[in-house]
Amino acid sequence: MALRCCPFWLLVLVLVTLQDKESCFGASSHSMKYFYTGISEPSQGLPQFVVVGYVDGQVFSYYDSHSRRMQPRASWMEKVGKEDPQYWERNTRNIHGFEEAFRIDLEILRNRYNQSEGLHTLQWMIGCELCADGMTKEGFAMHGYEGRTFITFDKETLTWVALDPQAQITQRKWDAIPGLNQRWKAYLEETCFEWLGKYLSYGKETLLRTEPPGVTVRGKTEMEDGMETHVCRVDGFFPREIDAFWTRDGEVWLQDTLHKSVAPNADGTFHYWLGIQIDPKERGRYRCHVEHDGLPEPLDLALEEPTNSKSNPGIIIGCVVAALVLVGVVAGILVFFKRRQDGYRSTPTSDKGSNSSDQGSNQTI
Question: Which is nearest to 218 in space by CA: 153, 123, 105, 313?
Answer without folding.
Answer: 313
